[in-house]
Design goal:
Layout: E1 4-10, H1 14-25, E2 32-39, H2 45-53, E3 59-64, H3 69-79, E4 84-87, E5 93-94, H4 98-109, E6 113-122, E7 127-130, E8 161-164, H5 165-170, H6 185-195, E9 199-210, H7 221-224, H8 226-240, H9 242-266, H10 269-288, H11 294-299, H12 302-310, H13 312-335, E10 336-340, E11 345-349, E12 352-357
Parallel strand pairs: 1-2, 1-4, 2-3, 6-9
Antiparallel strand pairs: 4-8, 5-9, 6-7, 6-8, 10-11, 11-12
């Protein structure tokens, strides 16, 4: 039995695939299997995978028709024979010691999940920035979601973690098999964090998440409402597990509101009105069910929220005005900005970075 099964869902990523594969085959932890699920790619991705498989017998290729990310991941989970499951998106890459370090933590603590920080990486300037999302949590002992519900608001980033295979099987955790490749990690991340008895965290970062892949897009009607399906699945899960719902529902609603706003900013303009109407109806129902509590308003502007649920039309106009203001603000920042966080300082003047420390 391999120590870790690495799942790679592949679809038309020939531009980045070699960098991804090189980072995995050169892991310092050698006892791994690498399962590449080719989801009907029509570029050279499959040929690249075959080249690697011919030189490394740890690589298994599953070639199938295009059925979407969720189905690919479930096939990978069912095929995996490792003690732990890892996921790498094929346009990303990882540090050579990632799985050695995470597996060591997992074995020391008998962890259901070991989750690490990650880097946001931009191809254009070859720069990376540490996410810093786990800095507020304890990393020297196992935690669970009942004592740390705020962990649910961390970006799903399912690829910056490893998961015990027996834990996933015993809890029947898998991916929604909705079309496309957007948001299917949301309900998977939520369920794993809620059901895990032992979650280990490390503030070390190993995973390089590419933020400027030009082929990533949600400008299609098919993808507009995928995030809603993920949260419908989460609601169904919580309704079947009332103890978990009592512990985490406030954080879930804050996360959901933020996710819907993020989606709203990304989708094409042609779909914004329809999505806002759906957004409004969904949260109005939560409000009428008395699920919106004081903690929600600590993170979500109450005035904006009440406008959303009482008049979707007014919210649409308000949102469009905010978009214009935000665009002007972004343009000013492109001319001059100073950004400071825990891992980096950058100064941009007339659109060019003149100082970058970190």
């Amino acid at each position: 039995m391999p120590e870790i099964s690495v799942l790679i869902p592949v679809y038309n990523v020939q531009k980045y695939l070699k960098q991804c594969m090189d980072s995995i085959i050169n892991q310092t932890l050698k006892d791994i299997e690498i399962i590449c699920i080719n989801d009907g790619s029509n570029d050279n991705s499959l040929d690249i995978l075959k080249q690697y498989a011919s030189k490394d017998n740890r690589i298994k290729i599953i070639d199938k028709e295009n059925t979407g990310y969720g189905n690919s991941m479930n096939i990978g989970l069912n095929t995996a024979g490792g003690q732990y499951i890892a996921i790498v998106e094929p346009d990303d890459f990882i540090d050579p010691k990632m799985y050695e370090d995470l597996y060591k933590i997992a074995k020391e603590n008998d962890s259901d999940i070991v989750k690490s920080e990650f880097f946001c990486y931009t191809t254009q300037n070859n720069q990376s920035r540490k996410s810093g999302s786990l800095a507020r949590f304890k990393t020297n002992k196992c935690i669970d979601i009942f004592k740390n519900p705020h962990l649910l608001r961390v970006q799903p980033s399912i690829w910056s973690a490893i998961y015990k295979k027996d834990f996933l099987i015993s809890n029947n955790i898998n991916f929604l098999e909705t079309p496309g490749a957007a948001y299917q990690d949301v309900s998977f991340s939520f369920k794993t964090l809620c059901l895990a008895k032992k979650i280990s965290l490390t503030t070390k970062a190993f995973y390089y998440y590419r933020t400027d892949n030009e082929t990533s897009s949600v400008n299609s009607k098919d993808k507009t409402f995928l995030i809603c399906g993920e949260f419908d699945e989460i609601d169904s899960f919580l309704n079947k597990n009332p103890d978990i719902k009592n512990a985490v529902n406030a954080q879930k609603l804050i996360k959901q509101y933020g996710a819907y706003m993020w989606n709203l900013n990304r989708i094409g303009d042609n779909f914004k009105n329809d999505f806002i109407n759906k957004f409004s109806k969904t949260f109005k129902q939560y409000y009428e069910n008395n699920e919106i509590e004081k903690e929600f308003y600590k993170k979500i502007n109450k005035k904006d929220f009440l406008m959303l649920i009482n008049s979707a039309k007014d919210f649409i106009e308000y949102f469009k005005k905010q978009q214009i203001k935000n665009e002007k603000r972004r343009n000013r920042r492109k001319m001059f900005s100073i950004r400071i966080n825990s891992s980096r300082i950058s100064i941009v003047l007339f659109g060019k970075q003149i100082v970058g420390i970190g």
